[in-house]
Amino acid sequence: MPLDTDLIRAEFPAFREPSLDGWAFFENAGGSYTSQQVLGRLDHYYRATKVQPYGFYPASREAGAAMDLAHRRMAQALNVGMDWIHFGPSTSGNTYTLGNAFAGWLKPGDAVVVTNQDHEANGGAWRRLADRGIVIREWQVDPVTGHLDPAALDKLLDSKVRAVCFPHASNIVGEINPVHEIVQKAKSFGAVTVVDGVSYAPHGLPDLLELGCDVYLFSAYKVYGPHQGVMAIRPSLASELPNQGHFFNDTQPRKRLTPAGPDHAQIAATAGVADYFERVAELAGDRVEGANPFRKAHAAMRLQEEILLAPLMEFLRSKNNVRLIGPTDPTKRAPTVSLALGELAVEAADRLARHKVMASGGHFYAYRLLEALGLNPGHGVLRVSFTHYTSPAEVQRLIEALDAELK
């Protein structure tokens, strides 16, 4: 594997926490452990600079500089300009505000494409535009596999489509969607693209210049950071959208689309996410290639996860009594694995806890997706999710627990 598991886990205080000792964490899709780089910045901010930032005295200036650094470092990690980066209280909150902004930008009769593969926080924000006279066109998944076929998008695109909104990866299906290909299709009709990256970003921050999308959203607390939402939006588009903040802040780009006033300390701490990714690249060394530390970290994390995922996929292919949602090829998916069972998913998750395996069951806000797959959202799916810091021994424990409990 490209990463030494022990060295990677040394970057996370949670792996030294006595109350978590012996537990295998397979609920990372709900939120990852926090790296020590992030915790160090958060602790310092609260201890030394918990004041109003951007003032005239030293602590205030330091606080503002720490927040500016987070914008700069996140932009560097995503390969965009600093003016792309906006922090909000959550991705759900950011998307809701963005949807309201689009409501004032679009005209009745304009069309927006959404999918039924999405987390409701993304899809729902756009579907509400129907109340404003916007036409909503649904790009539907394959009802058996959950696959989102780019060819099916072709039938939905025309000159009326102003935006195409879709996930980089589904939080249930796990399949990695071909963002660049989809963006190019949308762009050929003059449509902007809004990508929900919440379920992809923990597995490697993408190069947004390469993807070409206009908006990319993800949750820092699922990417080893604090509970913040990160929204990267093309500045030219951001300037066109109606101001969602106080009227007197209309000339301040950072405040126009994130009016909720996110936590200053957590913004500052998000710089630690970039620090951590650089540490991953350092630990990977020459075992993977990358144009810079962030691309190298991305390559190392993806390869690590593919190797870890392979035995789990092999095991699940042999289980005829469970329905695996999404592809079995580890190279085509994130390690977010959902299983449809003949019972309430929460009951299966409860039994896994007896094996000291942390997992969960439910519809995970992908209610429409489960219905499209012919599944009862009330029963939900059992979801096990991990990242590059998961150990081979933990994957084996999960396999043994599933084998024992899913009879």
From TrEMBL:
- Name the Pfam families for this protein: Aminotran_5
Keyword Nucleotide-binding in the entry? The reply is: no
Keywords carried by this UniProt record: Pyridoxal phosphate
Superkingdom, taxonomy of origin: Bacteria
UniProt xrefs under Gene3D superfamilies = Aspartate Aminotransferase, domain 1, Type I PLP-dependent aspartate aminotransferase-like (Major domain)
Q: InterPro entries given for it?
A: Aminotrans_V_dom, PyrdxlP-dep_Trfase, PyrdxlP-dep_Trfase_major, PyrdxlP-dep_Trfase_small
Domain named Aminotransferase class V is located at 25-398
Q: Which organism is it from?
A: Devosia insulae DS-56
Q: What is this protein called?
A: Nitrogen fixation protein NifS
